[in-house]
Amino acid sequence: MTLRKGEKMTISIQEHMAIDVCPGPIKPIKQISDYFPRFPRGLPAAVGRSSTLRSAVSQPSVSPAEAPREEDEDVDQLFGAYGTTPTEQPAKCQAPEELVDPEGYESDDCTTLGTLDFSLLYDQENNALHCTINKAKLPKLDFKKGLKPMDHNGLADPYVKLHLLPGASKANKLRTKTLRNTLNPTWNETLTYYGITDEDMIRKTLRISVCDEDKFRHNEFIGETRIPLKKLKPNQTKNFNICLEKQLPIDKTEDKSLEERGRILISLKYSSQKQGLLVGIIRCAHLAAMDANGYSDPYVKTYLKPDEDKKSKHKTAVKKKTLNPEFNEEFCYEIKHGDLAKKTLEVTVWDYDIGKSNDFIGGVVLGINAKGERLKHWFDCLKNKDKKIERWHTLTNELPGAVLSD
What we know:
- With 406 residues, the chain is α+β, with helices and mostly antiparallel strands.
- It folds into three domains: 31-86, no CATH class; 110-142 and 152-258, C2 domain (Immunoglobulin-like), CATH 2.60.40.150; 260-394, C2 domain (Immunoglobulin-like).
- Helix content is 16%, strand content 30%.
- It has a four-stranded antiparallel sheet with strand order 5-2-1-8. Strands 4-3-6-7 form a four-stranded antiparallel sheet. Strands 13-10-9-16 form a four-stranded antiparallel sheet.
- The longest helix has 14 residues, at 45-58.
- It is elongated and about 145 Å long.
């Protein structure tokens, strides 16, 4: 560096600090992580804490830049055994992993969606499933827990609805009355499914949903539970007090029961006094919905074939807007007992429509040429004179030999 005449030598502050503070080659200052390295996963916490404390306490008056190398090597060897070398530095500073408190979660459905108290009874003799809805305890409105807002007053207008799965929901839906402005509803109401067979009890599941009724908007779902009917024992009441769960999807791809058209309860009796066959149309259950409103206006027709005189047709009254009609009507066919073996009873269910053709819902054939329960029902009638025998039968989509127009 050359100076002109009259100039004074000037030194920058950087050069001044380098001269005064760092007279020799600048060496990197050791980082605190060299003395308290981060333990890899799997190292016992007690070992890590005791080792680092020993290294820190052994020389409390020594600065990091003057720490002896022997101690460093001991520490490095200790941690090198667990996969960390002295030259390894973390790419970024990582926060300690948070410990999860299992009791800190807010996913407890008992407190989130409420509980439901109910009982189930399968009456095997009458093929009926009785569902008694007792009471429920619903949670208060809490946006933090993700509950949908119900009413502005923080209460609800709850009701309970039932579905049998698999099965068409409209055809087998039952529901309780609605209770207003309460989070602790008590219904004490019994809903009954008719036409439930032992086979249904093996393969079907009862879905119980609690909902909030709203006059001006769609009704809101609160929670549900599902009970496989195979858990029930015939003629024994089983009580439940269950936490409600979030809504679960229904797999319709495996829902073979959607093809069912419903069931009908028929009674047969050969009367020696009237010298004829008495056919009782008692009720239907879970009929297919044929109208746009999700219901049907069903009635039943019966034929005793062959029918040369075209006089065997009988028809029940029409029941409006229902999928579970109750008829309790009886028809008499005057015929000798010995001739019944040559006859076939055809029963069809129709949906009544004004101004257009009535819709065929389903039918069933009873006679010597039938199979399964239909044959057994007919045979029991022939074998037991003057005894009324009732059986449930599944309606089929097609009825061979039947006239599919009214």
